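Thought: the user wants the 3D structure for the chain below. I'll pass the sequence to the structure tool as-is, report back what it returns, then summarize two notable features.
Action: structure_tool
Action Input:
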Amino acid sequence: MDRVRFHRIDALERRAASRDGEARRLLDARLAELMRAYAGDLKRAARKNTAADDAGGSVVGGLIDYLAQQTAARDSAFAMGEAAVFPQLAALEDFRAIWSQIRSESQLRQSLRQAPGDAGPLNSGRLVHRSLTLMRELSPGYLQQFLAYVDALTWIERMSGDGVMELDDALRTGSVAKRGRDKPRKRRGE
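Observation:
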């Protein structure tokens, strides 16, 4: 019923077994007192549970019945080919929005930190920096969507670099063999 209290009684019993004399007598007396109180609480809890069962079922029994009904309804909807509809938590949606905002701000700070200082007007890094800055000023919502899209593309690129989505070995060896058979190109001036 009460694990912490039970473990305390158990530890006190082990300690009493290792003592002798007056210390053992005091520990035994305290142990007997704790065990009587624990036994009394167990009896009261048992009476309370039987009274609840007699009154129409326990709270836990009602919860088990409810979960069984929900599971049966979900399984029947799935068997019929319908997607089970689960309620969305409002707190979860708020959390997603906050996380998206924090993530986009973090990515934006990181990209702005990497802006080259001495780059020309057509430098790709500088152009990306400029476009992100303008996007942040004009449409922060679109910036969050854009950064989520870029994040997904980066994730896919990392997956392909780790060997998850690599090409077949046969295709790779075939393309390498073709290059090896090609005649070397002549450079200008040779």
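Final Answer: Structure generated. The chain has two domains: 3-79, 90-179. The chain has a mean pLDDT of 75.
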